[in-house]
Amino acid sequence: MASTDVPKLTRFQLPGFGLPLNFIPCAESSEGPAKGEGRELFRNALNMWDIQDGYVQLPLTTLREFTMLHLMNELTDKPDWHKKVFDDTIAAKWKSEALATEGLDITQKMVDWCIDELRYKAKMFESTGAVIVYNGDVVKSDSAIPTSIKHALKEAVAPLEQVPARQQDWHPGSNERVLDLVHPSLFPLVYGRSRILPDSLVGLEDCIKRSGEGETIPVPLETEIELGSKLGYGHAPLTKPFSTQFQWLPCDVDISDKDSVNITSYINNLHPDKHKDLYSAIEKIIHHTIPIWNLTLTPLRAEHIFEGRVRINYHACEYNPDPENDPEIDGPQQEDDEDEGNFIQRRRQWYEDTRQVVQPEPGTFKPPVAPEDLHDEIYLPGTTELKPEKSTDLRRDYSHRGLQVIVKLANIHLTLEKPEYEGGTWHVEGQMNEHICATATYYYDSENITTSRLGFRQQSSVEESDEVDYRQDHHDWLEPVFGCQQNGPGIQDVGTVDTPEGRLLTWPNILQHQVQPFKLADPTKPGHRKILALFLVDPGIRIISTANVPCQQREWWTEVIQHEHSSISALPVELQDHIFEDIEDFPINLEEAKKLREKLMEERKHYVVEQDDAFKWHEFSLCEH
């Protein structure tokens, strides 16, 4: 079981230092006294118990409902969709175009629902500039980040790009297509190697000067890498979600001012003095991202919201044609010399080949609300406004303690010699050490590439298939209705979202995601795609951050020493290098940091495979009734 025996935490009691690595806070509403900050963590697909206990499952969704989601996603990519959707002529045109799409299984009732739902969503879009694309929630916005901030980010990033070729940090294994500008896998927290301050914090002004201070953080015990089931189940977890070697380091973010945010500790691998403009731009982007994260995280506080969003219900399997129950349909007849058993088998095969599963239809759109019997639990009396404990407002709930954010800046560069990006793997961000609960990716610069997309898939409730009424041994509805197979995993492909320049995309860590392939639009010219990724540490827990670990980069530290000690800077460069090379212990030089990065990436590569296997743990097992 995870340890939860610390009633009130200080800034220096952290998982892996002063607390067991697997420390998990307990909410005030749980049995027994509250532990930590008294707020339960968000559900997370990094937590193998959350996977096994069903906490990351979403409702089993029909393929037709996914088709509706895809259509609404496409329509909300249109300029001024929130205004045009109320124009009956334009709405009718959108409906007819969808119905005329070759090979698309879509009906009049489906397109009617989509337009009605978009008219409902347009009201939220007017106030937030954001659209919930897929359940989970995946949220997109093309206006959350003002254009002026996008330009400021581009200008502030430029110095990181304008370096000699020998200093460019191409991501290992990317064949010099992915350029890391700021990446958390370089100079991470290394258990048994990194220095941590036991009783003080570092800010932006002294984080480099204090490099080397503190004590070496111990390697966690093997007993600290397991988690317990929230439901008290005794079965063993599928894999160990914690690393005893590494942790990505977040920066601390002060959100006490409702009109701005303030990064109070250094962004790992981003020099706080040389890149002040970039710090400023990232602060502004975090500020504008917080309301979008609120939309993404709220359903994880009130999971019954998902139940109220089901657009197409499927309660019973029906066939049309249904040769077994229609005497007017002629079928194979037994031949004079045919064995009875062979005839029965041949006729049964004809039944299976002839019958067609009737696809379900949506009803009439109604605003999504939780089931009626749960209204009092979820909503304020007499309203459909969520109770504070059933919603997420990061500023309201966590302004007293701030947020922790892991920052990544990366470019994908395509050339005439390397014109394609093959795409990524299905994964969830981080390991449990980081407690990432949501991601925000800002696509701030794209040039000469085909449409780039991010794909999502969900773990769906296999138990819901047991509620479907069907005939003995008739399992042939599972694949055409839900896209799943008997004895197969409860995983459903949700769909993709386009990622054009200027788009902010957020999603929770209950979904797997995958970067889709793209290539040069014009193969005679180079192209690129540049992103800023923000990984939000679950604000219900505080982990070791750059406020606790002074800068580990030896190159940064030597610059400060040279500046402050003129006697050293007066020496020949070769002699200076020799002096600093003799420092064997700490800070860490770039060569060692890259070797440690290789170990971290290898460990996480194996973890991604293990997590993917765990994600597929729940399987369909339709009863023989």
TrEMBL record:
A Pfam family of this chain: DUF4246
Region feature (Disordered): 317-339, 354-374
Boundaries of every DUF4246 domain copy: 14-97, 108-559
InterPro entries, alphabetized: DUF4246, DUF4246_C, DUF4246_N
Biased composition (Acidic residues): 321-339
Protein's UniProt name: Uncharacterized protein
Species classification: Eukaryota, Fungi, Dikarya, Basidiomycota, Agaricomycotina
